[in-house]
Structures are given as structure tokens and as C-alpha cells.
Amino acid sequence: MERPFLLHEPQNPFVYPVETDVLCVRLLAESGALRRATVWFKNVYDHPGPYRPIAMTRIAVGLRFDLFEACLQVPERHFRYYFSFETDEGKWDFTAEGRVPSGGVPDAFLVPMISSEEIVTVPDWARGALIYQVLVDRFMDGDPTNNPPVVRPWEALPDRHTYYGGDFAGLIVKLSYLEGLGVKVLYLSPVFRSPSYHKYDVADYETVEAIYGGTEGLKALVTAAHVKGIRVILDGVFNHASSDHPFFQDLLKNQEQSRYRNWFEPHGFPVSMEKANYENFANQVPKMPKWNTSNPEVQGYLCGVAARWTKELGIDGWRLDVADEVAHTFWRRFRREIKRVCPDTLLIGESWSFSGPWLRGDEWDTVTNYRFRKWVLAFFQGEITAETFWKRFADNLMRYPTPTWNLLINLVGSHDTERWLRALSGDRNEHLLSLVLMLFLPGMPLIYYGDEVTMDGGTDPDNRRAMDWAATKDQETQILGQIGLLRRDSPALREGILVSEPSAPDVLVFQRIFGNEAWLIVINRGKEPFSHSGNGWKPRLGSLVTGNEIFVAGGSFALFQKA
Asked: Looking at the chain, which terminus has fewer C-beta neighbours within 10 angstroms, N or C?
């Protein structure tokens, strides 16, 4: 392999347009190898004209690679470009032919034309916003009159068939609580009629669950949330349905003659739930048959349902369940139809791994960043150092267009994981420190209901206990509320760049900077105190300053604002 290793391809995520005449280009380089990099560019059809240079910025430093980026403007929208770079050994060019001696006639990279549909745009309101996820049934029972026939006592442990009576009215009652946490986005579990308590198997996409308060109750919740400046997003389950759905029932009844035979994916006939000879969720849940999302008729039906509810309810977005198992053509159509209703609607895809193919401007806006959970857990369990944490964090960012960085959904818990406290073996202090870290980092932090009060629980269904309202006065909750409000009101904490600093292996030190606003955050998971220069910093939370020195005790955190 020729050293240093360099990589660029004229396609996303190495190139992506942000305006009709602005193209962002990236160069991936072996870590620490380049002193500087420059991109030279011009209009494709300007044959005699000179290339113009623009310096590239090193925007991420990972375990093996550095990422450089620059944005080029060509009014004619036709781009020809190549790179030059400098190492300790000398200067070279990097072109479509690879690494070549500098000064020759370059075989340039080409992006022939920017189309408007390729432009990476994201809802501005969502950048850095704090999300709060609830299972509607488990949060608060505000109207007992709409409860199902049998509900368990609020303090009882759940099983896979339990109802507790939570509803939209209860959420309205608790909106002030969410406001006090700095929440800007309320994410609801599925709300459409379903035979299960969790509603991830929809039997009727046209009907909002009566036991939650029905359509009018949901409209009232959206209106009340908007009054408090809180956006509402719904959980969209378009990968699969309930076997009770009338279209699947028609398939079972009429088999090969069914109008809906191509709406699902049978392996043969006769279709039988006992044999489960059709595609279903994870190929393990026959009660959840999988839609054939490549079928234009299925796309029209489901996209139409979502567009209708987006408009009628006035919601602000969708979290899309099992989204990486749905056809790309479906999501492209879904995005067009939803954004036509409301361009500012936020589309979040659920994925547990790398999701670059869906974040190219024509499908989702962002993705659930479950890999973040893995790195945070590894750091707090002492498996990786602070330096490795930062590099893994950067490695993930490199995979996505920069405009999405402040929209990645950072989370440590959800309805699909064991409770975060259980993952940390019951260590309440590390639980607090890790949530503090999440709230200070770039992205959209997601709090799974009850994590802010340190609720315990194992895997499903134990991770879906009813909300512990008695614990909301605990000190941990008050601290997280203070930080959430700071984040809500601070452009730097929501959208600022991240600058990590060298530190001890057990200490994360970083700044968030936006314009003239800057914050310094220290997270010390170790046992020994950590010191840092206090010059120019004003203490805000959890800190001790002696002269020009900052001291952060072991097992604690500190926050400072630029003086």
C-alpha cells in the first residue's frame, strides 16, 4: 500500500451538495500523515481557466484516519477538482489516478451536475434538540375512563400482556415536567390500533387507539405540547403489520386469488400462520407479517396514511421502525410525500449499525445512533480510554454528511435495550455521569422515559415498567434538568463544534464552541481528582476553582463557561 493512505470517491459521503451551487468534498487520510491539504477546483467546462485553491479543514480524527473537508462554490454547478497535500516527506497531488507528483496536468475528479433532489437538507429546528421517548401506556394515566378492561397496579412489574392505563391526557398533565427537563421533542410509541400493549403490530393505520384517547386526544396533546415549544413525533411501523390487519386476513382467506397477495411476501401457497411461510418480523414473529415495501401499491397505501396523519395531527416527525429493512424506493417516496405536506418534518430511521446509504438527502434525515451506547458503556466500564472514545466517536461521524452530525440520535437506552442502570451494574453515579456526557455532546440526545430518574429494569418486558414518579425529586433528576435547560437555551451546546482535549485515560475533557460562546466540560470517571487550567473559564456546575486551577474530583463532572 502506498503511504500515506488516501481515499476519495466522487459520491456521498465523500461529496454532497448543500446548495444548488455548493459542493462539500472530503478527503480521508491516514491518521496524522498530512500536515495540510488543499482542494483545487473549477467549472467542468472552463477548459482554459485556472483551478482555484481552497484550504481543507481537518474535521475529525479517528482511530486510523483523519477526515478533511472543504466546500466549493461554482455558480454553473459543474465541478472539476483534485487535491494537493503536504507530508513530512514532501508535496504531492491526489487525483482520479491516485497519488501523483505535484505540478502535472491533473486527471481531475468530476461531479457533472448538482440536482436539487441531491441536496442534503435537514430541519433546522431539530439540531441538537433533546428528545424524550415514552411508551404511552407506561407514562401517566390521566383519564381512567378510557382504560382497557383490566389494568395492573402502577407499581407492578410488567409482562408481555400488561396494560397500565397511560394515555394522551396523562402526557398533557406531565408536559410541564418535560419542559423542566429541557425537552424539545416528545417521541411517542406507536399510537394506532393494535392487539398488543406495545402497538408495534398495527391492525388499523386509520384509527388512533381509543384507550389512549383517540384522535381528538392526540390532537389535544400535540396542541398542548406546541404551546410549550415541544415538538411531537410518532413511531411509524411500516416494515410489518399485525396479522389482524384486514389485508393480511384477506390473503389468508383468498390465498392466490387475494387482491393483496403481492402486498406481502409469501414463500408459497397456501399461506398459513401455523407454517409461517411468509416473511415476518425477524422471521420469528408470525403475528407480524412483513409488507412488500417494493410494491408501489403498498408504498401508496402506507405513504398516504403517514401523509394524512402528518397533516391532520400537525405532528413534527416520524421515528421509523426497523427502517433499514424497508426498500429504499419506499423511503424515497415516503420522504417526498411527507416533505410535501410539511418540509420541516423530521424523519428518523431506526438502525443499529452504519446507515450512510439512507442519509444521502433523499431518504431519512437522521438515524438512531446505537453505536454511541456501545462506546459510552465501554468507557465507563474501563474497557477503553478517553482517547479511544473520542476516536471512535469521530470514526462514526466520518461516515455521514456533516449537516447530519448535530441530528444523530445519541442514546444509552430505549424500549429495545435493558435499562441503562442495569447495563452499568447498578452504579448510580456512573449512570448520572454518562447521561451528563450525552447531554453535552453533539447530536440529538434521547432520554428513554425513566432513565432521568435512574429506573432499573432488565430486557423486554422488564425495561418497560411504569414511570416512577416518586423519584422525580431525586438529586440526579434535578441535575439533569439543569443541564437540559442549559442545552435548550445555548446555541453552543446544541450546535457548537466539538473540540476534545488530551486528558487522563479516565477523564473526558472537551469544549463546545459556537461563535463567541464556549463551554468546557470535564467528566471524571476515575478515582483521582483531575486538574485543568482555569484561565478564562467561569464555573457553572460541579466545580472547584483554586486560583487559576480547576479541580474535578473523581467520580464527578464539572461545567465551565467562557468568561
From this structure: N
